[in-house]
Give the backbone structure.
Amino acid sequence: MTTKLVHAVVNGVLGGGVYALMAVGLTLIFGVLDVINIAQGVMVVLGAYLSYALSVHLHLDLFLGLLLTVPAMFIIGVVIQWAFIRPLRGRERTSMSLLACYAVAIIIEGILYWAFGPNSITLKASYVTSSVHVFGFYLPYIYLYGFAMAVALVVALYGLLYRTLFGRSIRATMQDQTAARLIGINVNRVAALTFGIGVAVTAAGGMVFGATSGGINPNSGYDLISRLLAVIILGGLGSIGGALAASVFMLTAEAIVDIWQPTWSVAVFYAALVVVLTFRPRGLFGRQEARAQ
Amino acid sequence: MTVLARGGRPPRTPPVNLLGGPALRRAGLAVILLAACGFPLVFTNQQVASIGVDTLIFVTATVAWNIFSGYSGYISLGHAVFFGSGAYTAGVAARDWHITGPAEFALLPLAAVVAAAIAVPFGLIALRVRRHTFVVITIAIFFIFQLMAFNLSFTGGTIGLNAPFLLWSPVTFDQRFFYIALVIAVATIALSWLIRRSRFGLQLRAIRDDEDRASGLGVRAMRVKLAAFVISAFFTGLIGALWFFFIGQVLPDSGFDPIFDLTVALMAFLGGLGTAAGPVLGAVILEPAQQYLTQQVNNSYLSQILLGSVFLLVILLLPRGLVTTAGERITKWQARRRQAAAGPAAEGAQPGSGPGTPDRLGADQRPRGGVR
């Protein structure tokens, strides 16, 4: 019993790392742009498919392939923001951007169906199938690498946000767009680059997710986005550390419930969200909603 | 707060008359209603007739969605909960009480009441948070319901439920469903219109414009929002049950379909969020277009890409919807004509100050009021 429990916790923590990779971009985009990027789920899937294409056709190692997919996804993100999010103005801006992101999501989903067909794919590599034996557990290498990468990326993002001038302008924009503009920050540029970074991080998350989830197809984005949204709301919108903590918390809770109730473990995500928000509407680590809406 | 000046009584500036005077407007409505009544008699082709029923189902769903989301500004992406609950209520009741044949239609009110009852706890949880979070909570609750439909024993699991079989010929089948759907649609539209004109609707729109200020002025925000949510759920559940009888089957991912939520939202946005006529117009344009695309384009992926592109174009080119945009054009045109008639003396008289100021700085500086 104890072994099972420990195993569940270890799995939850490692899986949480993978989710953090996907959720960090979402929470960053929300914090800076006030945009719920509902396309993030499909972006994860797109990132996984890009890695898949590189590894199948060019026989590129999955982690090496990231050197190509991450910049590609960055460009895709900047273009989406520039073309479809930036032009939105007015009172309904947040809702409109939600719908715009959804439209982008169904277009990308359609393109993926067209290019790769509806069958599930998995990313294959030697370290996906082999595992390391520690303290009586078998841990697949991909989880360890993925978790290490997640931690490294979250640290790198923190460094970017808190140690660079650009990070300072991102934080300024998060706090007050009008004031940031007044002191000479190019808010539009910050927004575009942030969107790009948020989507680029997702490429890494998509690769690990595609390798660990046991098969994804173009339709996987919907289930994923709802779980990611639950994670970032629980962690507090806009909080990167909160996203990491909430990912680990959710995945661990799910893995523990899974021991007794495999059918309902999926519901843990949403149930936890509903319970937390009933008592603490701003999430675990969120700041008070300062904005009017 | 121009919005508070527009109550049940007309404000001092003349209201926008899209269709001319009230008599003309009434005549126009009568013509549209007659045309709708004649539709299934003229088009007996089964494909066209079933598109007609589908369209009415989506008209009702979109108008019902708009009663809550459009008027209050809280975008719900969880209305499929009510649609699916309505369908499942009808299905479970018909199965367990052995209801067969046309008697199934007696279950429609039950489905609506169950959906409305579900909306009470749903609303009490979800409406505590502000707008962004609300959207996400509705999505989360939606997925819980889909999961329950998959896993609970009485829902039939992945196989779903079948509707009672109706011994009607295909043409009669479509015609009868069309008229039932038409009655429900007209009732929903009428209620939506009445709500918009009422004190209740005014409170909802005050919440949309500025919730804190509305509360300060004495609007009991939570109560008003919850009431609108329940009314909206009632009609969504009703039409969900009718859809189930029409299609003949409900599955967990067809009854609780995430695409449903977004389609309904898109239809309302296309027509004009928060207007009475907009959602009807949006649904009447989009649903047939979508069905036609699915039937004509063999490559379903291509039709999906096309749908997404149309969607983006609507958002970028008509961000406030057809009805609102047309209303603004007409107001401006009338103002210009009146100005020309009155001469240079009437300078500066601009009825219905348009919300056209581009909002560059974000939510804090929203223009208030405007023609809606």
User: Anything to note?
Assistant: DSSP finds twelve helices and two strands in chain A. Residues 289-293 of chain A have pLDDT under 50 and may be disordered. The beta strands of chain A are 131-134, 137-140.
